[in-house]
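Extended Data, panel c. Modelled sequence:
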Amino acid sequence: MKKKFVTAASLLIAVCILLTGNIQGAYIYAEESPEILKTFLGSEAQNPEDMLKRSEETGSISIPEEFQGHIWGFYTLPSDIGAEADDVLKIALIVKINSIGQEDGLLKVNPLFDLGDGVFTEYGADFPIAEFQDYMGETVILVGAFTVPEECERIEARMWHSAGIDVELLEVVIAENGYNFEGYKGFSVVEERYDTVNYDSNAEENMFTEEDPSWKDPNASPEPENTDEPTEAPQTEIPETQGAEQDQEPVENNTPTASAEKNVTESDNDGGTVLWIIIGVVLIAAAAVVVFVIWKKRKSK
């Protein structure tokens, strides 16, 4: 009889441990964020044209106004990045807008999916040159979301460049669906788009973006904090009728930075982990007490 109770106690404790572990595992899984899967420097493009200038210092490639064509050669295998058919991938181009000569034309996030045997699927997210007038001299992020087709053997993350705009391509990034590129390395996203010409309906229906910046890249830098101190108004006597306007104190900028938000999130995660550990310990202790009480009653009989 004693052996039966010991066995029952062991089983009950094991069930509590498994239950606690599954709950904790589900909690951790729910907190996972989409990640960057692959990055390329702009200078890794395989274009042979002499007019395209590469920089060893920045790892970028400069594309003059007169060039028209693809910036190509950013290859990866679906298996290397864990991509499967019908997955939605995000491809980002980090580009600096130097000058615009004419507004007719596009910059395009323009991936090519190799299906084997000379069969390809091409998608494109279009960004008309005219849209970049407000970004002259700035570095921006162009994001396209695309569906991985069936039988895909290789992915090429290309960029299309129409004549009329001078840009510098710094980086090409492939990320999981949901990744928020806003603030990546200190740059802003112009917009996230999908192919409306060939109509990638799966990307339209299933693409999503985290509300907060993903901040998965170790080199990503949050926006600098506002360290400007308010200037005190000169201490002079003023008529009573003007006092309401003159006595207003400068308003401090209390908006939390991205790094502060990240610290808060990490603290919340740590607190949740401790909570689940405590729950697990309580469950195991309760099970042990119940088994011990039953065993004592049996023994007294």
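The first helix runs from residue 2 to 31. This feature is highlighted in the accompanying rendering.
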